[in-house]
Amino acid sequence: xxxxxxxxxxxxxxxxxxxxxxxxxxxxxxxxxxxxxxxxxxxxxxxxxxxxxxxxxxxxxxxxxxxxxxxxxxxxxxxxxxxxxxxxxxxxxxxxxxxxxxxxxxxxxxxxxxxxxxxxxxxxxxxxxxxxxxxxxxxxxxxxxxxxxxxxxxxxxxxxxxxxxxxxxxxxxxxxxxxxxxxxxxxxxxxxxxxxxxxxxxxxxxxxxxxxxxxxxxxxxxxxxxxxxxxxxxxxxxxxxxxxxxxxxxxxxxxxxxxxxxxxxxxxxxxxxxxxxxxxxxxxxxxxxxxxxxxxxxxxxxxxxxxxxxxxxxxxxx
Length: 318
Prior knowledge:
The chain is an alpha/beta fold and 318 residues long. The protein is 26% helix and 14% strand. It has 2 domains: 19-158, 5'-nuclease (Rossmann fold, 3-Layer(aba) Sandwich); 172-295, no CATH class. The chain is built from 8 helices and 11 strands. Helix 1 (24-29) links the parallel strand 1 and strand 2 (41-45). Mean pLDDT is 84; it is low at 1-13.
């Protein structure tokens, strides 16, 4: 139900670009967020810049994102003024504008007594909406309370979902390595000595494997040699997993070989390593990250600082 104190937000005519007013937490979450709204326009309230100013000197991820955003805005506005329409963000994208703080409409002033940044951002979003009645306007924030306040007064509010993976798109894969004894010799020949070290999965599987399903092939004819492989869904074939190296770190068993191969594979965006303490999970993950550091902006290492279940964290106490 829309509050009686607020106007029903216009949904626009469907032709003009939409307007998205970003909260501070969106920038701190993803400093490149302004480039994730296609050809729609972005409005940054002055209150957001005031909050970002508190984060510019830190060394954590929030401070990194705050500085990255400010540098990006500075480059976009070099030699330019924002003006009424703002400045272009880039080819195929909309404009960005810094909007001064605006008070709440008369009907809402009595509802928000506290002069806090959240209320300034909300009042600015309402002002932008009311001054653009022919365009869809929404406040984008990860703050649930602010979204509830906005919706209570008739302001469209949305979460930032661009970087979220929908559960329906996450395939449930088989966790165990599939062990196959004495596969057909033609299959092994193609896998081990073929031009691309790939082989047709029909020779060893009754049904199509899940993406990135792992295999171990034991070959009695080759002196019980173990061949490690992975199903590549992109090429619809089983691919040989070779022993790789990252920053001088080499796998010492098949499980570590699988782990390192997955961590170094750009086609696998999320890798989860499980195992007992001291099995090399953290070492392999860090080695893989450092091996690819030139291709990424930042490497973030996070771990729980509170002991769970009265057990030490990791291989060594502390």
